[in-house]
Design goal:
Mean pLDDT: 78
Order of helices and strands: HHEHHEHHE
Largest sheet: 3 strands, antiparallel
Helix content: 40-55%
Strand content: 5-15%
Low-confidence stretches: 1-16
Number of domains: 1
Number of helices: 6
Structural class: alpha+beta
Length: 101
């Protein structure tokens, strides 16, 4: 998979400050993510939002749908899901939704 920064122009050099999460937390079936304002801007700037698995996944993250359901809706992206979620999270384009709120 191409690095997201090579597909989406304009990424800032330093990712947003986010709490660190373990791989198990990041990829839990029940994990829910939403795009950050930066992620929303980058998705809107993308020449082709379906160009890479990371961009396709970024487009689907809405703050309500858990990862298990996203995989069920698009099984073709399941293999790349882990790498894409980690990359998007570390680049500050998505954030973990706190379900306790």
């Amino acid at each position: 998979m191409k690095p997201l920064s090579s597909v989406v122009s304009g990424l800032a050099a330093s990712p947003a400050q986010q709490p660190t999460r373990s791989s198990a937390e990041l990829l839990s079936d029940s994990a829910i993510y939403r795009r950050t304002p930066r992620g929303q801007r980058e998705l809107l700037r993308a020449p082709d939002p379906a160009a890479t698995p990371a961009l396709r996944i970024l487009a689907r993250l809405n703050g309500y749908t858990d990862l298990r359901r996203l995989i069920d809706l698009s099984p073709g992206d399941a293999r790349e899901m882990g790498q894409a979620i980690g990359q998007l999270f570390n680049d500050g384009l998505i954030e973990f939704v706190d379900k306790s709120m």
